[in-house]
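One thing: mind reviewing this one?
=====
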Amino acid sequence: QVQLVESGGGLVQAGGSLRLSCAASGDIRTINIMGWYRQTPGKQRELVAQMSSRGTIHYADSVKGRFTISRDNAKPTVDLEMNSLKPEDTAVYYCTATTWSMTDYWGQGTQVTVSS
């Protein structure tokens, strides 16, 4: 089992920045991919960014050039630096970890609200 605890998030004006952090505990040796998804009411959860244990990174097209994912494999933690935020970035953001056996774990979610 893997437990994920998120921090960060909150309310920010358009154009501003926020940083999300996520710390994993439990059976951390099984973790391969860590990343962030987001969800708005009535919509499916969507991938924002993810990073493998070997450093391969994938970003959603909508956040490329604005968001940066980073990871510390030793702790392990995964952070999401969000710049130039837009109202459409408003969502609940979830930290996720995927093990080598393809089991997914999710954090409790943290609200990000961007006002126009």
User: Anything to note?
Assistant: The first strand starts at residue 2 and ends at 8. The chain has a mean pLDDT of 97.
